[in-house]
Design a protein that fits this description.
7-stranded mixed beta sheet, 11 strands, alpha/beta, globular, 280 residues
């Protein structure tokens, strides 16, 4: 791939995907990088898929935090199938959306989630700043009312409708990954309201350093940016399918790269939108 290009699409790579004749476009972590997301979505809409029974778009979570245009990203993310040129859209919850929803709820984890979300490490302050500017209230606290006022009921409804995962054939789409020591059905059924117990949105170690497979599934995930991915897997290319895992976190807010993939029966190819600001 040409790393200086604004949009890179790899050659097709052979893989044992069985996605029941669909052409699936999976989008990794965006973190407020609206320009790069728009570029990727435009490419997806323009990509021909001859022979596919249907086209599906899967968002793997972490649309928000850290980056410059979080509200615009959420508006793009909430747009329907006709806008994206697909038959179906699956919206997977990332740990950053989970923190936002916990913060704006009345649940038992709200205060702890807010402290974590607004920390420098998680970057939720960027979203809150955008919501305050949009609402005209410089002192607004994060709340469901503020979220609805700024984004509208349709976007908020999509946020509350996110899923822990999506499965098509032998492909499993999830934000963080799987714990090979726990039955997948039990692991993926943990509700997002349980905070970090919903480890499908948080797991890195125990998943990325596992080489024993996942019961025939191929796990397509985000959550782990290139540097962390390499440290856990030793892979030079973090977007290469290995040990039944395909990681699609391009580093977004840090690297200015939003990564995705097109997956079909027996093959996949990687898409990378943006021009790197620094080596990743």
């Amino acid at each position: 791939m040409d790393r200086n290009a604004a949009l890179e699409v790899s050659e097709w790579r052979s893989a044992r995907f069985d996605v029941e004749g669909e052409s699936i476009f999976a989008v990794g972590d965006v973190h407020g990088c609206a320009r790069e997301l728009q570029m990727l979505l435009a490419t997806i809409a323009a990509t021909a898929t001859p022979g596919a029974s249907r086209r599906r778009l899967v968002y793997l979570g972490d649309m928000i935090d850290r980056g410059p245009e979080n509200l615009e990203v959420l508006r793009l993310w909430a747009e329907g199938e006709a806008c994206r040129g697909v038959d179906r859209i699956d919206r997977i919850m990332g740990n950053h959306e989970q923190l936002l929803l916990l913060t704006t709820s009345d649940g038992p984890h709200a205060r702890k989630a807010e402290a974590m979300w607004l920390s420098e490490r998680m970057g939720g302050e960027r979203v809150l700043e955008e919501m305050r500017a949009s609402s005209g209230d410089a002192n607004a606290r994060p709340s469901l009312a503020l979220l609805t006022d700024v984004l509208g009921q349709d976007v908020v409804g999509h946020l509350h409708g996110m899923r822990s995962h999506s499965a098509v054939g032998n492909a499993l789409f999830v934000h963080g990954g799987l714990d090979p020591k726990v039955e997948p059905e039990e692991f993926l059924s943990r509700p997002w309201t349980s905070f970090t117990d919903a480890a499908w949105a948080w797991i890195m170690q125990g998943f990325l350093d596992w080489q024993g497979g996942f019961g025939g599934r191929i796990v397509v995930h985000g959550h782990t940016p290139p540097a962390k991915h390499r440290a856990l897997t030793g892979q030079e290319d973090p977007h290469l399918l290995m040990f039944d895992r395909l990681g699609l976190d391009g580093g977004s807010a840090l690297t200015s790269i939003v990564a995705g993939a097109q997956i079909e029966d027996g093959r996949y190819r990687v898409m990378r939108a943006g021009t790197p600001r620094r080596p990743d």
